[in-house]
Amino acid sequence: MNLSRYFAKMTGTTKSPPRVSVSEIVWSWIGAFLGIAAVAYINYNIIEKTDLVMIIGSFGASAVLLYGAIKSPLAQPRNLMGGHVFSAVIGVISYQVFHSHMWVASAFAVATAIAFMHATKTLHPPGGATALIAVIGSEKIHNLGLLYALIPAGAGALIMLVVALLVNNIPRTRRYPEFWL
User: Fold this and answer.
1) Rounded to whole angstroms, how far apart are CA atoms 134 and 56?
2) Chain segment 57-75, per-residue pLDDT in tens
3) In which region does residue 37 sit, left (phi positive, over 0), alpha (psi from -120 to 50) or beta (all else)?
């Protein structure tokens, strides 16, 4: 292997993308605020006294894609929903099978989620975090079992999708989604 050629691959091939407009920044902020607010409101005001959870850390990363990078293939409805739900199932199963070896459960969950998302055309980077949360999450998360794929992963992602559909189509300069399936 030629080391200089290998390291030359790390220099990049293009310039940084241009700065986005103030309008784009404002609409991204509004969408992210409303999307996370809706999920967090349900979590902290409606289901707080139950064994359910509605908000997980990976939704923060989904918000970046859904409201800040709306044209990205990774931000489309199929990717959002499939990425979270499939990865949640994989994470739960990984924890159940490998919980006595958390390092294996963690690595297996994320790697398998990535492979599955690729295979199903649902690649959504926050899905990797959703799988990992199923493994390293609290007892409350672990007690959900496969319900974790529905609540919070599926339901929370669906709420954020509805907000994205509503907010991202208000300005004339934005259109969401690029595709459904």
Assistant:
1) 10
2) 999 999 999 999 999 999 9
3) alpha
Instruction: Report the alpha-carbon distance of residue 175 to residue 35 in Å, rounded.
Output: 17
- C-alpha separations of 2 from 8, 12, 97, 169 in Å: 10, 18, 41, 49
Question: 38 is written with which tokens?
Answer: 């809706």
C-alpha 50/C-alpha 165 separation (Å) is 29
Taking alpha carbons only, the member of 102, 109, 107 closest to residue 149 is 109
CB-based contact 58:84 (threshold 8 Å): yes
Backbone torsion region of residue 157, taken as left when φ is above 0, otherwise alpha when ψ lies between -120 and 50, otherwise beta: alpha
The two tokens of residue 170 are: 């208000």
CA–CA separation, 108 and 113 (whole Å): 8
pLDDT, tens only, 108-137: 999 999 999 999 999 999 999 999 999 999
Q: Domain map of the chain by residue range?
A: 22-167
**Tens of pLDDT along 139-151?**
999 999 999 999 9
Q: Is the pTM of this model over 0.70?
A: yes
